[in-house]
Here is the input.
Amino acid sequence: MEPERLSQLSDLLAYARAARTGSGSAVVISSPTGMKCPELLAELVDRQRHSGQSPIFVSCAPGEESTPYAAVRQVLAGLAGDPASPDHGTVERLRHRLLHAPAPPDHRVFEEVHASLLEVLRRSPKVIVVDRVQWMDDASLRWFAYLVRHLAPLPLLVVLGVRTDDHFPAREVLDEITAQAFCRELVLGPISLDSVRAVVARSFRQSAIDERFVTLCQKATGGVPQILDRVLQALLNHRLPPEAATPEQVEQILRVCARIEADSVASRLARQSARLRELAEAVSVLGRAAEPPIVADLLNTAPEEVEGMRPELARIDVLDDAPRGACLTVRTPEIRSAVLHSLSERRRQLLHLRAARRLGDYGAPTTRVADHLLPLDLSTLSPGVRRWALRTLQQAAEEALTGGHTRPCAEYARRALREEVTDEQRARLLCLLGRSEALHAPRAAARHLDEAISLLIRPEERAEAVLELWYAQMVQHGAFAESVLRLPSGLPPRHRELLDAADTTDTDLRTRIRALARSSPSDAELIPQPSLGAPPGLSEATGTRAVLESFGALLPAGLGVPGVTPAERELLAACAGDLACRAESRETALELASRALAGTAGCGAPSIIMLLRCTAVLSWAGTLDAATSLADTLASCDVPVRSVPQVIAHCLRADIAVRRGDLATAFQEAHAAQSLAQATESEDLSLLPLALKARAHAVSGRYEQALRLLEGVADMPASMLGVRGWCRLSLGDTKSALIDLLECGRRLTELHIVNPALSAWRGGAALALTELGENALARQLLDEELELARRWGDCGTIGQSLRAAARITTTASARVALLEESVRVLEGSGARLQLARSRVSLGRAFAAGGRLLPAREALRAGISLAEECGAKLLVERAHKDLLGCGGRMRRSPLSGPASLTRSERRIAALAATGQTNRTIAQALQVAPGTVEVHLTRAYRKLGVSGRNALADALAGVLVGEHEPC
Here is the structure.
């Protein structure tokens, strides 16, 4: 028993001892549900019996309120069974006579029962304990009031336990009892934090208890002992530890508490009057905030009656405690679900239909009306009501899609499609369903849109459906960079015919068609066709200027300011992606992307594709902070948690982390994406996190692990082939590597993607060709890659291409010059691992030329940066090179503040000031996962268990404000 209850039990036992001396008294114990009043009273009775007394225990039950003298008869039964009773027969006869006693209280009966009690009290003191007085009949309650008024000379203690949150019509009689001079009042409230700690320790039998868990239990249960016991038992049943270390554990505990509380409230509601239950049911069916006039209309009563019943439902915790006239709201979603679950199917259907009609009459939003139509069997409705319901569902689907709420839109459309509708209605509903499914069920979306195209008649509507179908297919293909910026294949002839037949006077439709065309290889007339062996040699007529001039008539001068249409933003993003694919001007592509991003992004498939295109452009351009911010924007869209955009957002973060050289974050984000991808229906999408994991392994030098991940993938995307080719090349399988890399190049060339920022297949193929003796073709490929990289202008891509060119250069001085330029270019980029590789390669080149001092400096700088990136294999190999040229790595401390890298030190210092991981991530423009990884390393090196100890551990350590992460 909890410490508070033990103290209260001690008081009751003291009152019982005092009563034996003739100091009669009464105690009224008031408590809401869950405070374990019955357990306290039962313990009092047991203690009395163990001490040799014969207490009388009376327990009232629901339904006994209408049975006169039900509780008094229990008292008489206790007296008849008492050995001290002088005349058992007299007491038994009186008890049976009360079965037929009249309902109005009879004082002669009161006196007879009192006289029988006095005969027993003359021989031994008594304790009468009554539980659940709120269910006691009126006659019995008035007899107890009579008894308490005559307690003074009697050796008797009367204990009355009453539950305050139950319906109690005779509360004034209890108030009369409480007002007596010999009556004390005891209130059972929530238990303290110390008591919660004792209960947790007793339940889990652990010496060390997580204080955060204890505090969470106290807060989540409100200190209600019964709820606390049920929560702890549920945790024990699920074998969950008594910890609150992660948000998932906290959420799980709160869910258990909410369900237990809802069950308790529903049980309490079931004992209330029928009118109160009907009000709770009506409010639960209406959902959200139920206006009193609508609720009254639903119950066919007056609003004043609803207002009169509101306090009673608030008292038993069904409704929020709101002022008169305010909306009625069920306190928690779990309580609402419990109330709805108690309804019969027939009554639930009736209430939903009446709610839909009333809400429609009151002018409620169409989506709110449609919510009540979803669970209905429309076939049972009259033809007129059925037509109204179908029309409402379609309108609600349109409104939901316009607001970016795809899940409700799909629900409304699916429900309407289950009924018999005309071809025109079916086509419109299929379009709505397909557009809403594109982000979480792209394959189903494509199927529904394709059927809609066959049913639609108007050319512009068919063109709109074709556009949505292709956006769904782009999402379905997994959003690899090559499939986002370029469609996997050109538009089929029948779709091209439907687009050509559309109304060309519709500027918005024409703009969206042009945006789609910029992503289609067969329709990009301005895109060059480079061969494998020759650079593209783009002329001015086929370059950036031609693209901008071609679309200039469609792009108003005010782009980038409010007023740009979504279609124009799609076109801008498509143009930016087109320039990135062709490795045209990086600055122009970034400008177009920034203009496309001006304004508020939507959450439909076209807007998601636009965000993906812009993110790819920013990532290829080396603006990694802006790309990270855009990936976070994609993750925060109003879409389902386990949907395609959420998977792709994690993949984008992983890709950006690889480009930064933050391998730990790359693996973490790729793993999160893989877990979410398993819940989607897109098989292609599951390849994306797999490809990123393999790429991260390859970049870190774990080529065997990367190849194992790619085993069994039948039809690899182009960029995945490039990763496998580089891995095979690094492991010495030159011929297989060359086949993979050239196939990667062929596929990308078919898509008209020439930018090495996506895949440096030319560099890998050139190295393979060099090993096979094809030096001339190798030089040609590398010259082409370097020219494209310089034309695009991303420092990371240029630095990587320069390093590849240095590897096949035969002249030592030329090799050093290329590597020095690579280091110089990469120092101005965020590609830290690329910089580490170039520094190590430069150190090796210096060592080969006998320049040992600069070789050691370059190797040390490369090793230090590689350690920060987590590239252990590169560190090991570079360290051997350092030893070979007579140097050794300056030993870094293994623990303490000096052992922290710059990134770890900066993030730890910010965390020590009390900032959260998300705040730090936003301030440093990195992913939250990056912050978590660096903090974990810092904790280990500093020997602390959490951020509360960081301030002392970092005392005296200065952190520069502009150190990069």
Notes: Confidence is low (pLDDT under 50) at residues 524-547, 550-563, 956-965. Residues 905 and 928 are 16 Å apart (CA to CA).
